[in-house]
Write a structure and sequence with these properties.
Strand order of the largest sheet: 2-1-5-4-3
Order of helices and strands: HEEEEEHHHHEHHEEHEEHEE
Number of strands: 12
Structural class: alpha+beta
Strand content: 15-25%
Largest sheet: 5 strands, antiparallel
Radius of gyration: 49 Å
Length: 445
């Protein structure tokens, strides 16, 4: 559209100059013809027998007889230098600056511009052949005003024409590219997860592209489902060997071989933790920044708290939720539920009596702070939190994978996780999540 605008504007400007040039040429050609006719009339009226040039009869145009009336004539006898002029010239003298038969211009003292035509004539008389320089002219200001008026009208017309052309171009682009917009909206629906493939009515020219994209989407979904199924099958297939290893560890312990039993049990536990970690990661939805999502942070937080309050540990705690107006974040709903669930479970696990959840907004980021009044974590160990399999307290049950999975979720969704000591004494985990960018165009999660 920008290139079309530039092209139309340049074309119309060039057209304006060409039209003005052609109109000026035609007006001056018409003026030249009038002057040529007037010069012929003056030449035919010259009386060559008189020593001083005179006309046999006055010209019929009354402007010649009116001082500065707009039409002028002048005859100079080249042999004597005597001049005869129209009454309209008063005491002015025309300077024939142009070549014989050519148009010239002259500015008179009152500021007027006169366009003139001069011609040298040899007229025979009974006594001898005499030479005269005949000049006729007229005011150029009316001609210049006519040209200016035409130019102004042409500019108005071309401006209107330009607006119509650009409007037509805009309509052509808008409706011509409407099918592309339909494909774009269908792709956005796939990115948001509301559709599994491109759906809608598309022009026949785009059918091959739509079919190819849908085949790729189906192949991607099939590949992901096959990979998840393989991971699930592998996990279930390893349950029996792991159970056998736990049984062997118990038998070794009963036989008094506690060291070997502990080694076998540790290996089995490590394998179980890695399997659980990979299975939970397999459920996450990989996406890029170009794939927007929209989920309610308040809804995910309140639903998770409601579930945890029904557990044995959650019933013993006092839950405080300080949430702002409903906040929508650019995180997949399933990922958000998993993320909030992991961090709240971790707080409930370590809290003594209270868990405080506070949501704030900082620019384009939503911050969810989860604080507990538990023992907390020493400052020098805060950096070790979230490292896969790293447990800071081996005395309590757990795998050490919860915060690591939370970190994976945040990495997928362009978020961050920060740790510090809470004001109520325990650990404060801050989740920084990007806000949903186009709330009006995305469906509710």
């Amino acid at each position: 559209m920008g290139l079309a605008t530039i092209w139309v504007v340049l074309s119309l400007v060039a057209a304006a100059f060409v039209l003005q040039y052609l109109f000026t040429i035609n007006v001056e050609r018409s003026t030249r013809e009038d002057l040529n006719a007037a010069l012929t009339r003056v030449a035919a009226s010259i009386v060559p027998e008189n020593a001083k040039p005179t006309l046999s009869e006055p010209l019929p145009d009354p402007r010649y007889a009116t001082p500065l009336g707009g039409r002028y004539w002048q005859v100079r006898a080249l042999d004597t230098g005597d001049i005869a002029r129209s009454r309209s010239l008063w005491d002015l003298e025309l300077d024939a600056l142009g070549a014989d038969g050519e148009i010239s211009h002259q500015i008179i003292p009152d500021g007027r511009q006169i366009i003139m035509l001069s011609r040298k004539l040899d007229i025979e008389s009974p006594q001898a052949t005499r030479s005269f320089l005949v000049t006729v002219g007229e005011d150029y200001d009316p001609t210049r005003a006519l040209i200016a008026s035409f130019t102004a009208d042409a500019i108005k017309l071309l401006t209107l024409l330009g607006v119509l052309i650009l409007s037509a171009a805009w309509m052509l682009l808008r409706y011509g590219l409407a099918p592309i917009k339909a494909v774009r909206e269908a792709i956005e629906n796939v990115r948001r997860g509301t559709h599994k493939q491109l759906e809608g009515r598309f022009p026949t020219e785009l059918d091959p592209l739509v079919d190819e994209v849908n085949q790729l989407l189906r192949a991607r979904d099939a590949t992901m489902e096959r990979a998840r199924s393989r991971a699930s099958d592998l996990a279930h297939g390893l349950k029996t060997p792991l159970a056998a290893l736990y049984g062997i560890a118990e038998e070794l312990r009963e036989q008094g071989n506690a060291n070997d039993a502990a080694i076998v049990q540790e290996i089995a536990s490590e394998m179980s933790e890695k399997i659980d970690y990979q299975l939970r990661l397999a459920t996450l939805r990989l996406r890029t920044a170009a794939q927007p999502a929209r989920s309610s942070l308040n809804s995910a937080t309140l639903r998770t708290i409601t579930v945890l309050k029904k557990t044995g540990r959650g019933e013993q705690l006092h839950w405080v939720a300080e949430l702002m107006d409903d906040c929508w974040v650019d995180v997949d709903r399933q990922d958000l539920m998993e993320l909030v669930g992991i961090t709240l479970e971790n707080a409930a696990k370590w809290a003594a009596k209270r868990v405080i959840v506070r949501a704030t907004r900082a620019g384009e980021v939503a911050q969810l702070e989860i604080s507990d009044d538990g023992p907390g974590v020493p400052e020098h160990q805060l950096e070790e939190l979230g490292i896969r399999g790293r447990r800071l307290d081996e005395a309590r049950p757990g795998t050490g994978l919860g915060l690591a999975i939370a970190g994976e979720i945040l990495e997928i969704n362009q978020g961050q996780m920060q740790f510090r000591r809470a004001q109520i004494g325990g650990l404060c985990v801050t989740l920084c999540l990007p806000l949903a960018k186009s709330v009006s165009s995305l469906p509710s999660a």
